[in-house]
Amino acid sequence: MKKSVAAVSAGADEGGAPSVRERVLATAATLFYQEGVRAVGVDLVVERSGVAKTSLYRHFATKDDLVVAFLEREDAEYWRDWDSVAAQAKDDAGAELEAHLRWIARHIAGPTYRGCAFLNVATEFPAPTHPARAVAARNKTELHRRLTALARKIGARHPGQLADHLVLLIDGAYVNGQLLGKKGPVHSLVAAGTAVILAAERR
Q1: 26, 63, 68, 77: which has the fewest C-beta neighbours closer than 10 Å?
Q2: Is the predicted pLDDT of residue 173 greater than 70, yes or no?
């Protein structure tokens, strides 16, 4: 009997319980994000997920493979949430840009926030050839591409430059929010972003 589409999408077994791969990945994702990748060993992932080490290695040959899968999961969730925010803007590019800034600011001010997963991993693995850095770079490249497209829709004279400025603001907020939390200047992200957008529209 085949798994249902929903079960496959969720990484669940036929009975509805998470598959071994999904249990390992969900556990690793939580630990990597909260503790840092280098601080978390495979043994801890095995212990917390309740699976045998052989089962973990059956799905992830190396820890690097697990880190890449973690970031790919984060990437998919990020764009799913982005698309959800975009859908509410109803094809109004200006409103969508502001909505994304508000969504990011809320995320940073949340109780479980511990930085941007992509920036965190890139910091932990400085070697440009590390496979996880490629996933992190892809996320940031896609962010710039989407912001450029929105900048073009609002009529910015230099869409790529506006996207540059917004990426710098967003990534700065991600880093500052990790250090200072919601008491820091993250509350000014929307105002700063709006000012940059308005300035770009006037040129």
Answers
A1: 77
A2: yes
pLDDT at site 63: 97
Question: Contact at 8 Å (CB) between 143 and 97?
Answer: no
Q: What torsion, rounded to 10 degrees, do the Cα atoms 22, 25, 28, 33 define?
A: -110
For residue 82, give both structure tokens: 């982005």
Please give the CATH number for the structural domain made up of 12-61: 1.10.10.60
Centre a 10 Å sphere on the Cβ of residue 18 and count the other Cβ atoms it contains: 17
What CATH number should be reported for the domain whose range is 64-202? 1.10.357.10
Per the CB < 8 A criterion, the answer to whether 27 and 20 are in contact is: no
Q: How far is CA 115 from CA 31, 67, 107, in A?
A: 13, 16, 10
CB 71 within 8 A of CB 136: yes
Biggest distance spanned by C-alpha atoms of the chain: 61
How far does Cα 157 stand from its chain's mean position? 29
pLDDT at 194 (0 to 100): 96
Alpha carbon 200 to its chain centroid, in Å, reads 27
